[in-house]
Design a protein that fits this description.
Cyclin A, domain 1, 15 helices, 299 residues, single chain
Length: 299
């Protein structure tokens, strides 16, 4: 990641080179497959966080770290590291750095439960049932092996990220901006804030890796803009976004990216729904690439 001054309001942002030359692509992972796996891994992290009853800001930080792990030639390769293991490591790491620490056993049991589900993209009612997940336990032998794997991947994540675990989120900024624009408090303020948060949470799973390419302030402005248009809230006249240091070009890109996310998810579900699961281990990724190669050679 490109170095930037550490601040509670900024994040290290990915360079164009890092976005276009990942270790996975160097190892021969097709770009569309890489996109599918990173998206699926981010959704896995979200599901695990829900089952572990972690606050959304903790889950969001874990998703950002998970995504950062795969970026650039110095990042992790999907043919060397299991996306599911990296997801577990980021949840475990971020919870350790917060007031909501989770034990290795609870993380391991949660990911084993999610792995037991028949599909990568189950209905929310399937994986948000924390009661079912809490009753799922692995054997003691599996736990001991899995704990070693969890610890090893936690160290790996820290090394790949250069121990940069700071993540600034745009959610609180968006509330401040809505107050500045006099949307809060107002009759429509609650609905606007809720819709804005929905877009900010969805952006965590975006194939454009929006949290790695844009600062929190710009994400907050774009989410407010999109949310206001969707629920019919009148925005101020003029280029109000410039007050919050958001450029017109960045706003335009983010508006399109946030607007296209629903369609992307629908396509992913259709693409992988017939086969059940997105490959989330290095072995499965290698198998998927081999399968594609055989189909191409037979065509």
């Amino acid at each position: 990641m490109a170095p930037e001054p550490l601040s509670i309001l900024t994040n290290p942002l990915a360079t164009v080179e890092q976005l276009t030359s990942s270790s996975s692509q160097f190892d021969g992972v097709p770009a569309d497959l890489e996109t599918s796996i990173i998206h699926a891994g981010a959704r896995l992290t979200q599901a695990a966080g829900i089952l572990l009853q972690l606050p959304q800001d903790i889950i969001a930080q874990a998703i950002v770290l998970f995504t950062r792990f795969w970026i650039g030639s110095e990042g992790g390769s999907l043919l060397e590291h299991n996306a599911s293991d990296v997801s577990a490591a980021t949840i475990y790491l971020v919870s350790k750095l917060s007031a909501y620490q989770k034990s290795p056993r609870s993380v391991i049991n949660t990911y084993a439960y999610l792995a037991s589900l028949p599909a990568t993209f189950p209905l929310p009612s399937t994986y948000i049932d924390a009661q079912d997940a809490s009753t799922y336990h692995v054997s003691e032998g599996t736990y001991l092996t899995s704990r070693q794997t969890l610890n090893a991947n936690e160290s790996l994540v820290l090394r790949i990220l250069g121990f940069q675990t700071h993540v600034a989120l745009p959610h609180a900024l968006s509330i401040t901006y809505m107050q500045t624009l006099s949307f809060i408090p107002s009759p429509s303020g609650t609905a606007l804030a809720a819709r804005t948060f929905e877009h900010l949470n969805a952006a965590l799973l975006s194939p454009q890796l929006l949290y790695l390419t844009h600062p929190p302030a710009t994400l907050a402005v774009a989410a407010i803009y999109v949310a206001a248009r969707e629920i019919g809230t009148k925005l101020p006249e003029g280029e109000w976004w410039e007050v919050f240091d958001c450029e017109r070009e960045d706003l335009g890109f983010l508006v399109l990216a946030m607007g296209s996310f629903e369609g992307f998810v629908r396509e992913e579900v259709q693409k992988w729904g017939r086969r059940g699961k997105v490959p989330l281990t290095a072995k499965q990724v290698a198998g998927e690439i081999e399968k594609r190669t055989m189909l191409e050679e037979g065509a």
